[in-house]
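so my prof wants the structure for this chain in the tokens format not the other one, which i didnt know existed until like an hour ago. anyway here's the sequence
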Amino acid sequence: MGKLRRTAVVISLCTFTFILIGFFNEDESIQKHGSIHPQAVVPNVKANFIPEHPQDPQLAQLGKAHTRIHSQNPVLRTNRPDTRAHTMKSEGSTAVSISVRDHAVPGRTLQTMTYWKRSGVNSYSNGDTSWIPKTREGKYLLMVFDRGGFNNIRLQFETIVALGMLMGRTLVVPASRPWYLLGSKQLNYENFFDMDDLSKLVPIISFKEFQALKTKGKQEILKMRSLKNAFAYPSVDAVRKSMDSNVLERALESRTLVDAAPGSNFFETDVLEVANGQWRMLATWHTHILFADRAHDLALKRLLRDHVHYRSDLYELAAKGVDELGGIGAYTSLHIRRGDFQYHETRISAQKIFDNVAPLLSRSGQTTLYISTDEHNRTFFKPFADAGYKILFWRDLAISKLDSDKVPFEWIGLLEQLVASGSNMFVATRLSTFSSYIIRVRGYLPGAHFKELYYADQQYTGDPTKDDTEKDIDWMNTKLGGGELFYFREPKSVWALD
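here's what i got, hopefully its the right format
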């Protein structure tokens, strides 16, 4: 097979809480195989891995749609190659050159990863705020934490931020509490997100500060559901008049437009409270809001790109992990979801995964794989090792061995996302909100290569004209039929904004 390059491809093994839906029997599995990361066992945590979205009636239909769509949609179909002889490129092969491959130059990795601070040739266009309503005095939007795992909470958080901006409301952050499967620690958005940067977009106060105001105005419950409703800006009438009826039908699917224009209850009420329970915003914010003016859609995407992001200290830690792997672009990353994931069609054997993605790994040209996974048994990935790839997981990185005061348990999933985002190519688990965020962050990185939606359960050919198609699919050009292809995906129209 020839002498392998000593560059790095990383299959990012998300061993821990944030990605996995299941309740895993940690005693038997960990004793047998060893914990993927040593800090995974936390007092008062029932499960080792965090479900992205616990079983929920409104989600039951999501996983069923994407298989049907892939089989019926010619844009998504690919030819099935002969997978018997997939091997890596040898030492003499020509490597793919990418502009962001800095190979662990001190400080440069962090500079590249913190995309919202970009400048010079990598600078992006700033989002226009002139069209956004001014914050109205006495108008509040009470936030809530979704009852699911971290990435479900993140989805709802982003949507609430966008709605608060569009309705000119001050956001009220709820009181801290333990988050699903993240232990007994009292947590809030500030533990994960840069709230100072966010406050440049929309005013934010704590629930305690809100209580001190003793507001006695009219209160309304904002009941919006991913599968039932879509928010129209600036109004339902404006959206219907501006959009082609066929495009609007594709965008809505079976959903109903919600009006928050001046005069509507949602706009006029003083205190608007986000409903929880059965009313969950389990969708990317950009599928939740339809704009009459496409310029406003683009501007809001830019604004959320630049101001809604993880804390800087998370990026500082993740940059060390990326440097340890050789620097940005020096490895390939994969997210392989194995636990009690409710979308069982994505849980396939390691040999099948390898056969599916081997042509992609060859195109990537890297020999180190960073794998993010909940699979405790490293021998599961034997087909990749047998092909000559160097496989690394979270627990192999030096940052995984830092004390918990420097790397809190609840940060590990986010750090894995950021480490995976620094790769030359990323292969995702379909229907995973953990994976979809990595896709979006990679899209934001200036100069990153292979910005595509690749999934481990799909067969690839090695031909870019057949393999590199999914990033262009969104509701503007394809009737997606629900499921991940509509609600969880992060297509090019979300992150290619300049």
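also thought this was worth mentioning. The chain is about 30% helix and 10% strand.
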